[in-house]
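User: Can you predict the 3D structure for this chain?
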Amino acid sequence: PLNKSIALLFGHIGKLKTSVGDNAAQLKKTEELEDILDEKVSLANRLAEIRSTKGQEEAFAFFSSGRDKELMDKIRNITTLITNEEDAQLASLKQQNSENISGFNLAFGFLLLKIAITIFSVFFLLRYYFKERTKAALTLKENKELLQTVIDNAPSLVTVKDLQGRYILANEHFGELFNLHVKDVLGKTDDAILPSDLADVHRERDFDVIKEKQSIETEETFPYGNSTRHYISVKFPLFDKENFIYAVGGIATDITERKHFEEMLKMRSDEILDLFNNAPCGYHAINKDRIITEMNDTELQWLGYLRDEVIGKLHIFDIYSPESVKVLDRLGDDLIRRKAGGVQDLEIRCVRKDGSTFPVLVNSVILYDEYGMFTGTKTALFDITLRKKLESTVVQN
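Assistant: Here is the predicted structure, written as structure tokens:
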């Protein structure tokens, strides 16, 4: 029941942190609440442990310290502050909304006045409009050329295709990718530029944009000489004044170098993981309940277990001999009370899955939380079977 309550409790905390959004003050209070709840949970676990190991009187004495009540008071204070601030923000938003409505009404009145003046002025402006029409056409042409210049100098691939898949706009960077002049791209479809299988993929994504009537971000590839370039592509619909789609635009950014870096990073990560799993020493980690949470392949092979048989299932004492368990239990409790950092070169025996034992040297680091409560250990084991045999041979000689 305690574990279920803890899981439910932190599920609520997660929802609360999500609900406060980017409100820094509320998020800070929520995080503070979460920290207090961590301590509250630790106290509850500690109380349960004392009750089960030392009896009811010790548990009552531990509970009577009043720390649990202090934490509950803090929890109530913080939740009250959060609630009050949310209420204040709601009231502020209502006031702001009321002010916005008043401002809108005022602006709308001015807008009606402006419309009336505009209608009255239209007749006089028409003559000027026709006079300036030629000049406007020239300006439009210059603006179009300017836009094309900007697009041509953009580092991304910029394209626009009509609903039949024909290119009606492309920048020079796109043309250079396929060793074509921009004029040679216009009017063509992907089938005339790309390999058929790749062209089908691009055309299918264009159809998705048209069907969904919204932008789609995908990763695309284009052939480039004897290599392949990778791009993050954003395809988006273009609407006419009647809100009908008449074309599909696309902006693709080259991420080839990033892909290479990610592949290299993955390779390095795999090498580090391989080094960890195949190190000449065993390694495992446990949580505050002394359940094994991590173990490398070397130690698993020593013990004869599969990973699924150990992680989250075996207690740390399950892999040690009874004599070693007594030593570790006594030593562990002493180290936890003294807040010691760990143990070094402690000689004990491990128990394999088949029941056989072998000697190891244990080096452990004990972990504590900010309140000084035990949270687990990280341990390295060194198989000293061969060394013990050599020592025995030396003694015999």
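The two ends are 61 Å apart (CA to CA). The chain has a mean pLDDT of 85.
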